[in-house]
Amino acid sequence: MTGLEEIYKEIKSCKNCNLWQYATQTVLGEGPQDAKIMIVGEAPGKEEDRTGRPFVGRAGKLLRDTIGSYLIKKVYITNVLKHRPPNNRKPKKGEIEACSKFLLEEIKILKPKVIIALGSTASKFLTGEEKINVAFEKEYEFMGAKVLVNYHPAAVLRNPRLYDKFKKKIDEACVNL
Ligand code: URA
Questions:
Q1: Of 55, 47, 35, 50, which Cα lies nearest the Cα of 118?
Q2: Residue 78 half-sphere exposure, CB side, CA atoms within 13 Å?
């Protein structure tokens, strides 16, 4: 078994918080184990919970279209939480504490050059900065990876004026591919 498969097995049976009770299934990371870029979102939404794949709903389509069908295959996509919070509510502190160990394992195994944190939950976890607008302007380091913070694609859907900045940040990160 590869390192990731072992982690996936653990995630699938994880009951360290209550979210497994409400979710249809776990949503594991997706992408090649030698990916240089890792994208980290917040938690699965409705469509992700239904299909078992990260970023496949409306926000996911925007993300995937922005990266492009060729480059997306070279990127590893995952979330801080692997089970959907009911009604897509924000993850609780205890849920992040319980689940983030799996993200740490994913980073340890993949050793990405660049991590793109999408939205405030991933940004706070990976940079320690509370305000996404502050983190957006900076560069951080986490477990040997460069961390770039970007808006969550769901926020871009709500406020299309953010799209140009969102795309520019994605392009900046994908230069590393
Ligand atoms: N939003 C996220 O943060 N992650 C997903 O996988 C889907 C939507």
A1: 55
A2: 28
Give the separation between CA 93 and CA 134, rounded to whole angstroms.
21
Residue boundaries of the structural domains of the chain = 3-174
Residue 3: predicted pLDDT: 87
Question: Class assignment of domain 3-174?
Answer: alpha beta
Assigned token pair, 115: 């991590």
Ligand 1 geometric centre to CA of 170 (Å): 16
Q: How confident is the model at residue 177 (pLDDT cuts 50, 70, 90)?
A: confident
Ligand 1 centroid, distance to 41 Cα (angstroms): 5
7-37 per-position pLDDT tens digit: 999 999 999 999 999 999 999 999 999 999 9
Mean pLDDT of the chain: 97
CA atoms within 13 A on the CB side of 156: 22
Amino acid letter, 100: S
CB 86 within 8 Å of CB 37: no
164 alpha carbon to ligand 1 midpoint, in Å? Answer: 20
Q: Is 54 in the pocket of ligand 1 (CB under 6 A)?
A: yes
Q: How far apart are CA 6 and CA 15, in angstroms?
A: 16
**Residue that has been written with the tokens 């997306």 in this structure:** 72
